[in-house]
Structure formats: structure tokens, C-alpha cells
Records
---
Amino acid sequence: MRNDDIFNESKLYMPGGVNSPVRAFKDVPMNPPVIKSGSGAYIYDEDGNKYIDFVCSWGPMILGHCDEDVVKAIKDTSERAISFGATTELELQLAKYICTTVDNVEMLRMVNSGTEATMSAVKLARGYTGRNRIIKFAGCYHGHFDDFLVEAGSGVMTEGIPGSAGVPEDSIKNTLVAQYNDISSVEDIFKQQGSDVAAVIVEPVAGNMGVIPGDENFLKSLRALCDENGALLIFDEVMSGFRVAYKGAQSIYKIKPDLTTMAKIIGGGLPCGAYGGRKDIMEKLSPLGPVYQAGTMSGNPLVMAAGITTLRKLHDHPEYYVHLEKLGKKLEDGVRNIAEQKKLPVVINRCGAMFALFFTEDSKVKNYSDAKKCDTGIFAKYFTHMIKKGIYVAPSQFEAVFLNVKHTEEDVDRFLQAFNSFEI
Ligand SMILES: Cc1ncc(COP(=O)(O)O)c(C=O)c1O
């Protein structure tokens, strides 16, 4: 079957033809290609088109598609262990690996997605502090948990809806929204409701309103405000973990969150998530403590095997991060030069292997209000142009461009050539 036939028939059986809304390409004037296979930096659709993939499954595929070691780990493990719902040594290996690698994670719990990680971390913070309120930032996305669906960035933004139907007022009454990179907006909330705030949850490098790195002083002040007010600081590193640096964004900023949420890369491309942090907090989780959270598939052997293999490979090849930075810089400089020459209204933000190109007349994009000023009409034209040239980027102005270690300088040149021939 061809791309359009599969997509059209999918619509009969899955809402919008997809299992996650952004895949439906609603913001751009075309049907999504239906992806058949991937290898290294490339993906192939059912019509036989080849694309250089700059989505990388929205982040996880940092080693590229079907990395031979990850494939082998999954194959070998599947011969003897698919799922037991019981303790395995593989879980220990991945948990120990992450705890001894990520500086502020002493203990962790595996779950099955980023959403599960963030919602469980918030529940734990509430259980630990005995408080209900949380502070999140406009434009930050932490998954589809009801309490987070207020000014929730990318997917919700692309759909053009303010939050989501089906979320009772009661679910969001404890969610207080502050402005990213604006510490005074957080101070104001703490002044009024500080003693009720269980946690501040933040993407240290925001990746769901395009890419917006947190200002160092902003993040440091968040740490201080949480300490002053007895609230926990949760870094949502679902996207940035093992991507912007091996030890995550917290290692770049040198800030100690109380809890960290992870997913994407730690599962090596299989469904995964984890949350972890200070031992005294993690020990409040059932069966040790009173905060209940569980999962039949959590710590699944295949996922653990793919995750360990991915993280070990990243560890054993520090040159990968050098390569990613080099390509990221080349992409950033190249796009900036082309935009200047062609007088395109573009702002570029980047942190390591996460990159965003905003179509805006402004000179900076530092928060959600800035991001929302982008011209999504120009983005749609850019997107259609790029995909026709075989460059697969996310079909939304508010998603990141991701690099993987199999991308080459030639792949980045191809991106730049395609961008160079783009006319508004
Ligand atoms: C920062 C962040 N947190 C949480 C999530 C939710 O993760 P998942 O889609 O695995 O539920 C995402 C997803 O993109 C994310 O980027």
C-alpha cells in the first residue's frame, strides 16, 4: 500500500489516523509520509522516498535508526526474556547506570513514558511535602497528565486549543503557571502561595516551544526559591537527558534538582520513562513509603536492554557528543548565514543536538509569548519545501530539530542546500 492509502485507511480505525496528534501533520498542508523503515540517519516511506531524519522519533534515536548494537541487545534479550512483571538483573543494571551517571539521581523508578515519569514525580513531590500546588511554565510540556495541560507548548499549541477538553477545572486548580526565563513571575507566585507549593517543574532546556535554553540565573534562582519555600525542584529532562550533554542539562548548569524525570534516550527507542532523585524523597514511594505508583510493564527487559546498550555506547564514545556539537554548530551557523543573506525573519536557538528555527521578526525567542509570535504560515511553507527536498523535520514550528550521531557533515550540507533554496 502507498503512503496516502495507508494514512486514509488509518483514519477509519484511529482518530485522525494516528496514535499521537502531532503525527497527523495538521499544521502543514500535506498528509504525513508513512514510514516503513529507518537506518542510521535516514528513514524511508512506503512510497520509496528517502529522508534525512531530523526528528529522530522526537529525540530518542540519538544513535540513529536500528543501531546494530541496540538491535542485537533487543534480539538477544527477546530469546530469553520478554516480560515477567518481576525483578530482573537488567533493571538493576540500567538503574545503577543512571544513578551512578546522573549526578542528582540517587534512586530511581522506571515507568513506561515521559508522561508517566512527570506525573509520578509530581505525585511524589506532593506526597513528600504534603502540599498540593505545582508551578509550571507557559510553553513547557510535561506530557498529557491533566494537571500539566495548561499552556502546555508544542502539541497543544499546534492544535490551536488552549488546553484540552476533558480536563476538569479541579485538576488544574492546583497548577500555577509562571513565565519561562522570568524569575519575577515565579517570585510573585511564591509570595502569595509559597507555603502551598509542592514543586516547581521545569524543562531546563525547553524543547516544546521550539528550543529555548533556560537562562542560568533563572534556573539558579528557581533552586533558591524552592529552598526558601520548602518546595521541590523537578527538572524534566525527558528530552534533554543524555542529549544536550551525557549527564543532562543539570550537568551544564551545575544545578541540583531534587527530582529528575527522564524518558526517550534512556529507553534506546523503546517505550520508557524514569524518575529519580534524592534518596529520602524516593523512599516515600510504595512499597517503602505511602506514595503509590505501579506498572505492569515498568522495567521491561527488552526496554532495559535497549536502554543500557544505548547509554553504554554513548558513554564509551565521548566523541559522539563532540560530533553532535560540531554538526549542531555547522547547522546553526549555516542557517543563520543563509537567513541573513536572504533577509529571512529567523531566530535560531540551539543547545547541543537540539535546534530550533523560529520564523519571527523579533531578535530573540526567550519564552512562550515570543514563540507564539512566530509566523506559522511561513513555517508551513518551509516545512513543505524541506520535506520535498528529502529533509524530514517536525511538522510544527514548536518542535525541535534533533541530530543523531549517524548524521554526517554532508547531511547537514543537504539541509543547508535545501534551506538555501527556500523562498517565502
Ligand atoms: C520535556 C517532556 N516531558 C514529558 C514528555 C512526555 O513524554 P511522553 O511523550 O513519552 O509521554 C515529553 C514528550 O515529548 C517532553 O518533551
---
Amino acid sequence: MSPEVVESLPATVPHPSLSREQQHEIYHYLKLTRLLEERLVNLYRQTKVVGGLYRSLGQEATAVGSAYALDKSHNDMIAPLIRDLGAMLVIGATPRELLLQYMAKRDSPTRGRDLQIHFADLRRGFIGPISHLGDMLPVMCGIALGSRLRRESRVCLVYMGDGASSTGAFAEGMNFAAVQRLPVVVIVENNGYAYSTPTSRQMAVERIVDKAVGFGVRGERVDGNDVLAVYDVTRRAVEHARAGGGVTLIEAVTFRMKGHAEHDDQRYVPKELLAAWAAKDPLQRYERYLLETGLATPDELEAITQRISRQLDDDVAFAEANPMPEPASALLDVYAS
Ligand SMILES: Cc1ncc(C[n+]2csc(CCOP(=O)(O)OP(=O)(O)O)c2C)c(N)n1
Ligand SMILES: [Mg+2]
């Protein structure tokens, strides 16, 4: 079973509640995610990226659309995974700090101690991924419970892969969140594979959203390549959670267009499957929508792209010029005193 294609119909009228400016902003984040990753691939090939590079190519709409549905005025929070660069950007991580972090440079958020998107900023509302799959959910349950005890209105959004949704940590976290009716939204990004294992070889359910029934929570399934559909479904889940309704499990059906990481040539993925999903590219699809509804002109989209490219030129130059950390700094911030 490869993910059944749940394609939502192409929208032909402007979104009823998002303004033109907001929809341009969504385009900015989709494009920024794509172009930043392209810069990272370049740096990786020059051996300037330390560690692995995990692309979100083809999945950008899931990360961007869901994070865009959160509300900063309530201090909502995300727990991203490796393929949620777009969500990190939406919530406020900057391309410059991400480039520094991928290159483990002196002025990176973790000063070279960790890599990729493994860093946190509670003020901006993101916690760093834990490598152990599934564990972000129990951690976010703790944050959500703590917030509720302090009578805060925060909603916590947790990202999971299809593979992660087969772990014990996922089951424990779902059950705890469900029984406590925590203000948690879980997005399972069903991208067809976990490493080289197709979804059908690591779970027996046809639709991941059906797992919601077993935990007694709301479930919704969405076309993960339709950024506005992802936004709508997440917005509903966030409002439901904030009103005290508890957890929603969202299955976003999408596809991993690259291997697990840059070293993986994904020869195990059928070519026809890649071609079929390439035709559903989330960025092109959103571009078509903006142009066909008259929400943007080609010149406006080009101007957004040019702005991003100039910003990335500066940020890449800055990150490349930044030195590696001093070896002695490895001991800083390790002990409290
Ligand atoms: C508990 C645990 N088991 C195995 C791994 C090794 N591992 C890292 S990523 C990955 C595949 C993840 O697949 P999925 O959850 O579908 O996310 P995707 O990479 O497709 O986004 C595995 C097996 C791990 N990090 N944690
Ligand atoms: Mg997967």
C-alpha cells in the first residue's frame, strides 16, 4: 500500500478567510523552504554541512500550512521533525541561524554542539527534535499539561512520520493526550516511506487516520500537498484543542521526493510513483492557484523569489565566513556553575 492519493480539488476561488497578504506570506515560506534546502544541498556537496541533510522536497506544504494555522498571541508551540524546516521558518527560526546550525559554526544556536534543526527556542515556540522517533509526543504532552495547569491557552503541535507512528512512544503519548484531553494536535506526515520501508511493510492499517479511533480522538485526513487544505484542517484542530475539546490526529498524505537523506539515492522507490507525485508538487500547485484566482501576478511572485534569493546570498556568505567553534568552548554551558 503506497499512500492512497487523497487529492483535494484544486481551489478556483480565493480562500474565504486568509487575506491576500497572508497568502503571499504562505508563498514566501513555501519558496523559502525550497530555496534554503537547495542552498543546503549545494553546501552539503561541498562537504560544508556537518552531518546528514534531510530534505522536505514535496512535503513543504504540510509543514508550512500547519504551522501557519498556529496563533503566536497564545504562545502556541511546535515539536518539528527533520522534514519540518518549513514549520521552523514559519514559527520564526531564521535562515541564517539554520545555515549556521547545519554547518556547526561558532555562532550557531547550539555553538556547534548539535546539527540540522536540532535546536530550541521556547520564546519563539519550538523545541528541538529528539532523535528517538515518537518521543516528541510525550514531551509535548508534558508541555501541554504544564501550560494547562498554569491556565495558559497554548496549543501544542507535534509532527510525526508514518514510521514514528508505529512506535511505543507514539501510542503512549496519544493515549495520555487523549485521556487528559490535552490541547495537542498531532500531524502524521505520511510520506510513503520510513527509510527504505514502504508504509505497507510497517503497519497493517490502510489509513493512518484510523489509528485515531483506537485512542478515542478526532481524526482528519488531508491532501498534504495542498497548503490551504492543510492550513484549514490544522486551524480546525487548533481551535478544537483551544476550546477544550482535546486532541486531533491529522494524517497528511504526501510523498518523500528524495531519499531518507542526501546520501540515499532512493533506488527502492518506483520511478512511476515519483513521477506521479512530481506532478502534484505543492509549490507549483500553489503558484497556479495564486495566479488563476488573481491573488498574485507573475511579477509579484518573481519579486518574492528575488527577495528570498538576495537574503539567502547574504545568509550563506555570513554562515560560510563564520568560524568553527573554539575547542575549549565545548565545555561552556555544560555544567550549571
Ligand atoms: C526509536 C527509533 N527507531 C529508529 C530510528 C532510526 N530512524 C531515524 S529516521 C527513521 C525513519 C523515519 O521514518 P518516518 O517516521 O516515516 O519519517 P520520515 O523520515 O519519512 O519523514 C528511522 C527508522 C530512530 N531515530 N528512533
Ligand atoms: Mg515517512
